[in-house]
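Service request form, structural biology core

Requester: graduate student, group of Dr. S.
Request type: structure prediction, single chain
Budget code: on file
Notes: please return the result as structure tokens.

Sequence provided:
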Amino acid sequence: MVRNPEIQFADAGHIKAFQEERLAETLKYLAAHSRFYQRMFSDNGIDISEVRTIGDLQALPMTSKDDLQKYNADFICVPRDEIVDYVTTSGTLGDPVTFAVTSADLDRLAYNEWLSFRTAGCSRSDILQLMTTLDRRFMAGMAYFLGAKELGMGVIRVGNGIPELQWDTIRRVGPTCGMVVPSFLLKLVDYARKNGIDYHSCSIRKCVCIGEALRKPDTFELSTLGQRIHEAWPELELYSTYASTEMQASFTECPYHVGGHVPVDLIIVELLDENGRPVPDGEAGEVTITTLGVEGMPLLRFRTGDICIRYNEPCRCGRNSARLSSVIGRKSQMIKFKGTTIYPPALFDVLDNLPEVINYIVEVYTNDLGTDEVLVRVGASDHSDAFEKKIKDMFRSRVRVAPSISFEPAEYISKLQMPPMSRKVIKFIDRR
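Core staff response, request fulfilled:
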């Protein structure tokens, strides 16, 4: 892997030339070591020496999650005794996929998160409270720990959940930064208020947040969830980071909060339409990635299924790397409901705006007519007909249609959100 943290500050021409040199190295590596891509190149008559530019990638087939599931072992490029860590994807879109990680890949992950934390303004003087798991085959938790160590930050590995332990740790150690799923911050606030903890004056001043959108993809204004956290804890600065196991890289906001910066020495990003063609800047497309410098299981033109918007204009922070919006939705989770196209995050944003709502699950299934039907299971402090009407009116005003509402005990929904094998809260169930 070639580390070049300053390349993100270079002009667009130098960034493109740098990435194309790394792309040539990646193609040679795949041709020499990956059974899957050797077969792809052969079956499609591809001469990798003719792929010289990022634009030339358009001539190559794309890799899908189905490919990873069906031919998993064929993606591994190293002998078994060189694999030091096995991780899996979350399985949000199906059966989890196993990834093999080498020692060099762990070093790359550490460098990636070193870049990420630096982008968010962290330094070795910070102490990080890690509120995500390091176990359960979770790549990200290990990456955060290694990146913080690389930067020289102190790290407290508290793990997820348990507000009492989180606050006890904050009191004992005085961390300055948290790594957390943002909705958990509201639970920390709730616990603090009920137990007389002055959280406004605690040591934590920023959090790097994963898994849930904090900002609207088109305007960068705070989402409903982000606004609720800001109103409850205004002293806390929130940074978004977007990543996946397959990418082995992350896109993190700088202090200007205008999208996650692409780590251009680690990954090539294409945003593609339904037909696999690049979308114009400012338009939504599927994030399709080519990893650079991965040793164990590198990927070429992998379709993530995530829909984002790309921004290419230079950022005020001085970086000229492209930026990605928060995830608008997953391509496979798109809902066609009563003639309207909806992604689950748009429904989440409505529900997060209602203080009476404690928790929820959005379910989509196929009805007797063969079309999509949406049911929202809601745990709330108010089960009245008037509140149900309020929810539906909110949906109609924000997304033009209103799904069915079912009030359920909040405890029951909590169990649905965190099944035994899950590493993160589930808010959407696709039964189609």
